[in-house]
Design goal:
The structure holds two protein chains of two kinds.
Chain A: H1 5-15, E1 18-19, H2 21-29, E2 34-37, H3 41-46, E3 53-54, H4 60-67, E4 75-78, H5 83-94, E5 100-103, H6 106-112, H7 125-130, H8 132-135, H9 141-150, E6 152-156, H10 162-172, E7 176-180, H11 205-216, E8 221-225, H12 234-238, E9 243-246, H13 251-264, E10 268-274, E11 277-283, H14 292-295, H15 308-311, H16 317-334, E12 343-348, E13 356-360, H17 382-386
Parallel strand pairs in A: 1-5, 2-3, 2-4, 4-5, 6-7, 6-9, 7-8, 9-10
Antiparallel strand pairs in A: 10-11, 11-12, 12-13
Chain B: E1 2-6, E2 20-24, H1 28-38, H2 42-46, E3 57-61, E4 64-65, E5 81-86
Parallel strand pairs in B: 1-5
Antiparallel strand pairs in B: 1-2, 3-4, 3-5
Classes of the chains: A alpha/beta, B alpha+beta.
């Protein structure tokens, strides 16, 4: 005689033990059972148990052995209301899994009981296509892309380093990009500042960068900070960001941003360029790494270190360094791989064998800002500091050599 | 004992434009002395009037910052790779 769905469900109920959500919770918390969510992937994305492994019902028999090789291990199955998982449990029984339980009431009952659950980000069709190459990388995937979309990165400067960095972060789907710059686009910028265009000469750099970023990715929220960073405003400007990228072109700003990031315990992705040379590293004392002050306790006296405006820079070079800065920011956001904390990548692009070097950087326990006993616990006057004005024990200013 | 010294762009005017030069010595101090004999003017850019390493220049022996080794007394051996890395500010 043909069976009705009711017959099948009743039969399953008589053979598969059921757990209430509270009983399931206790087993899960005691790490006694593995939880398999047999719902479809779109249901999973809308919310699921934090510990659950997703295997849609249709794939259950095909994938269970890979996820749970031990057939004695207790398994709790659930779906939305507890019926699909009840029927699915029979299949596992048939495969020899001895301790299979069904969670009565499924995810809905779990949620209604106020137990913890998490939701995957809902991607739009446009996002699924746009980030499809990211979804394929294990280190990114949907989870990583969601992190990128939720992240906030601040570019200090929309110039040579800020251009490639900003473009790649926008393309990667960093959800919020802040840009600090008070300058306007100049024709002489365009040899290297690829975020700007010829028809935008005279426009504020933040406005021009915003146009380019949104032309690549309209989903990115751009926050413009049309200000000169100072000791008075820097803490407020950086407050909301997860990662700060230093794309500035002068020592006072470099020391200012460094100190602010140390105080705010935020990672600072540093990069600097000079003609055919450049370097990049991540300053993150909160994670045990050095800060800019550990490296260079004092700036060179004015005149001893010419800027790009004085010494020039090859247009491609900031493309290289700025891209590394974007890459490091993305690694930090994803928690993927090993960020360049305590390591400097150093390019001598005119060379061959020493085209690139890796240098070990160390946190200085005597650092005045991030050391074990800091002597400077608030922001100072960085223009004066970099002009060689005496700052206590640091003030061994040198005569300028040109 | 010859060691290789990698010279950053801003200091290459002291080395006739060379990005790699060689010098001899058994400590970093001796190497810098030899470097000064071969390329006068270079040492002053690296050391202050007290003969200490300037605070905006770092020197690495085989990738390790000498401030965390023995500073100018750090030992060097044949074939060591020395990098001079000054603070640079450029970004625009």
């Amino acid at each position: 005689m043909a069976k009705t769905s009711k017959n099948i469900i009743d039969e399953a109920r008589s053979t598969i033990p059921e757990l209430s959500v509270e009983e399931a919770r206790k087993m899960i918390e005691a790490s006694q059972a593995v939880v398999i969510d047999v719902r479809e992937s779109d249901e999973w994305r809308q919310g699921h148990l934090p510990q659950a492994i997703p295997i849609p019902r249709g794939f259950l028999e095909l994938r269970i052995e890979e996820k749970v090789p031990d057939r004695k291990r207790p398994i709790i199955l659930h779906c939305a209301s507890g019926l699909r998982s009840l029927l699915a449990a029979r299949a596992l029984r048939e495969m020899g899994y001895e301790n299979v339980y069904n969670m009565a009431g499924g995810f809905n009952a779990w949620k209604n009981a106020g137990l913890p659950w998490v939701a995957e980000r809902q991607f739009t069709q446009e996002e699924i296509t746009r980030y499809s190459r990211h979804f394929l990388i294990p280190e990114v995937g949907e989870k990583g892309q969601a992190k990128l979309l939720d992240s906030k990165v601040l570019l200090v400067g929309a110039g040579a380093l800020g251009s490639p960095s900003g473009l790649y972060l926008a393309a990667a789907g960093v959800g919020t990009i802040g840009i600090v710059d008070f300058d306007v686009v100049d024709l002489s910028n365009l040899q290297r500042q690829i975020i700007h265009t010829t028809d935008r000469v005279g426009m504020l750099k933040t406005e021009s960068a915003q146009k380019s970023i949104n032309a690549i990715n309209p989903g990115v929220k751009v926050i413009r900070h049309d200000v000169r960073l100072t000791s008075e405003n820097v803490m407020q400007v950086i407050a909301d960001y997860d990662v700060i990228i230093n794309c500035s072109d002068n020592f006072p700003t470099r020391y200012l941003v460094n100190d602010a990031c140390v105080f705010a315990r935020k990672p600072l992705v540093d990069g600097a360029i000079f003609q055919f040379e450049g370097n990049a590293t991540v300053f993150y004392p909160a994670k045990g790494g050095p800060c800019y002050r550990c490296l260079y306790p004092e700036p060179p006296p004015p005149g001893m270190a010419p800027s790009c405006a004085e010494a020039g820079v090859l247009g491609v070079l900031p493309g290289l360094i700025g891209s590394i800065q974007a890459l490091e920011a993305i690694k930090l956001i994803l928690g993927a791989g090993k960020p360049l904390i305590g390591w400097m990548v150093y390019f001598n692009t005119l060379g061959d064998r020493d085209f690139v070097r890796i240098l070990r950087l160390r946190r200085d326990p005597k650092c005045p800002v991030c050391g074990d006993h800091p002597t400077q616990t608030e922001l100072i006057d960085y223009e004066a500091f970099c002009a060689g004005v005496n700052f206590g024990a640091n003030g061994s200013s040198q005569p300028a050599h040109t | 004992m010859p060691v290789q010294i990698r010279v950053p762009t801003p200091l290459r005017r002291f080395t006739g434009g060379a990005d790699v030069v060689t010098a001899e010595g058994s400590s970093l101090r001796e190497v810098l002395d030899d470097l000064e004999r071969k390329h006068p003017g270079l040492r002053e850019r690296l050391l202050d009037e007290n003969g200490e390493l300037r605070r905006f220049v770092n020197i690495y022996i085989n990738g390790d910052d000498v401030r965390f080794l023995d500073n100018l007394s750090s030992k060097v051996k044949d074939g060591d790779d020395i990098s001079i890395v000054p603070a640079i500010a450029g970004g625009r």
